[in-house]
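Consider the tokenized backbone below.
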């Protein structure tokens, strides 16, 4: 399997070759390149399919063992100076590579005419919708899978950024800004609450972020931090859109 990891660089570079050739073709031979649009699209889908298959092959052992693989090249070595570059593959990288390649294939197949022949707003809307979908689903899913209380809150914020981009894509700048402000205050309240919980846990488990921030080890804290319980509940209800709290007005 380590031999396969050495060729993971083809995931970003193989699909990138078609846009590069397409850009050069549009600069040097614009008419001929436009006439061969279908061929370019088919080649892009084919390369993305190969990369997606390769990504799935890499992700299976990553998901099972949660291992991390790092591959580094030494480019220049001169006495005490060395220039190295490489890449690191972990479970999140594997999932993202599958997600991005899958969405890329869907966009190329279902929106070929819009991307080349449609008006600019349609193309922009397709790109915005794709990124919004990825951000919302991936952020929410990652938040559910976290054991660290601060990471869980941070990933849920990533999910909400998708809704803000959705509002911006629709031209509703006031709604996006309003959602940004209300979410910031509500999430700040939750982060302050998480800090209070972490400090309370340190009195039991000592200074160890792996333990004091681990939600698996938390439970029955209401009687120990009653004020934090109330503030944390208030921030949670606000993010859920419960009236009359601020986020309810945004979600309406």
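A designed sequence for it:
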């Amino acid at each position: 399997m380590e031999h396969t990891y050495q060729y993971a660089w083809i995931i970003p570079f193989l699909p990138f070759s078609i846009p590069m050739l397409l850009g050069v073709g549009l600069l040097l031979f614009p008419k001929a390149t436009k006439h061969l649009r279908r061929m370019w699209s088919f080649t892009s889908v084919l390369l993305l399919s190969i990369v997606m298959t390769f990504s799935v092959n890499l992700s299976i052992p990553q998901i099972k063992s949660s291992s991390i693989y790092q591959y580094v090249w030494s480019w220049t070595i001169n006495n005490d100076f060395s220039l190295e570059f490489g890449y690191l593959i972990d479970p999140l990288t594997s999932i993202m590579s599958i997600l991005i390649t899958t969405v890329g294939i869907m966009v190329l197949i279902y929106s070929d005419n819009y991307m080349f022949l449609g008006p600019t707003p349609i193309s922009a809307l397709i790109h915005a919708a794709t990124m919004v979908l990825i951000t919302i689903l991936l952020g929410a899913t990652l938040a559910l899978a976290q054991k660290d209380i601060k990471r869980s809150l941070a990933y849920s914020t990533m999910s909400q950024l998708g809704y803000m981009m959705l509002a911006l894509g629709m031209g509703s700048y006031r709604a996006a800004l309003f959602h940004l402000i209300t979410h910031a205050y509500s999430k700040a309240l939750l982060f302050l609450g998480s800090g209070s919980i972490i400090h309370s846990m340190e009195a039991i488990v000592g200074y160890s972020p792996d333990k004091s921030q681990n939600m698996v080890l938390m439970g029955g804290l209401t009687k120990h931090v009653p004020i934090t319980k109330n503030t944390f509940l208030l921030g949670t209800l606000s993010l859920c859109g419960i009236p009359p709290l601020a986020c309810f007005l945004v979600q309406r």
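The radius of gyration is 23 Å.
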